[in-house]
Design brief:
about 85% helix
Length: about 130
C-alpha cells in the first residue's frame, strides 16, 4: 500500500475510533453505565479494579482499547510491516482520534455558548416588550 493510502486510511480509521470512544464516555445513551463505572473507579478496593472501571470514563484511555479492536479488525499497519507497523499505527490512530475528539469537544462548547447567549438575548427582548 502506498504511503498516501496509508495516511488516508489513518485519518479515516480514526473517525470511528473517536466516535465510539466519545459516545461511550460522554453521551447520554451510556450515562447509567458510565456513572456506575465512575462510582466503581472510586470505591473499588484494588488498584486494578479501580483502573479497569476508570477506562470506561476517560475518552483518551478508552480510545486505546477501541484502537486495538480496530487494528485487529482492519489489520492496519503504518509505515512498517509486522508488529512495528501495528505499533506505529496504534499510537497514530489514538493521537488522531483524540485530536478529533478535542475538536468536537470545542465545537460543542462553542455551540452551547451560542445557544445560551441567544436565550439571554431573547429574555432581554421579552423584558423590554
Amino acid at each position: 500500500m502506498t504511503i498516501q493510502m496509508q495516511v488516508i486510511e489513518l485519518f479515516v480509521l480514526a473517525l470511528p475510533i473517536a466516535c465510539i470512544a466519545w459516545t461511550i464516555t460522554h453521551e447520554e445513551v451510556f450515562r447509567e453505565p458510565r456513572e456506575y463505572c465512575i462510582k466503581k473507579s472510586k470505591e473499588c478496593r484494588t488498584l486494578l479494579q479501580r483502573k479497569f472501571f476508570y477506562l470506561f470514563t476517560c475518552e483518551y484511555c478508552f480510545s486505546h482499547y477501541v484502537t486495538l479492536f480496530v487494528l485487529w479488525m482492519a489489520r492496519y499497519q503504518l509505515l512498517l510491516v509486522g508488529w512495528k507497523g501495528y505499533l506505529v499505527a496504534g499510537f497514530s490512530l489514538v493521537w488522531i482520534a483524540n485530536v478529533y475528539m478535542s475538536l468536537f469537544g470545542l465545537l460543542r462548547v462553542d455551540i452551547k455558548k451560542e445557544g445560551t447567549e441567544a436565550k439571554l438575548e431573547e429574555k432581554k427582548l421579552e423584558e423590554r416588550n
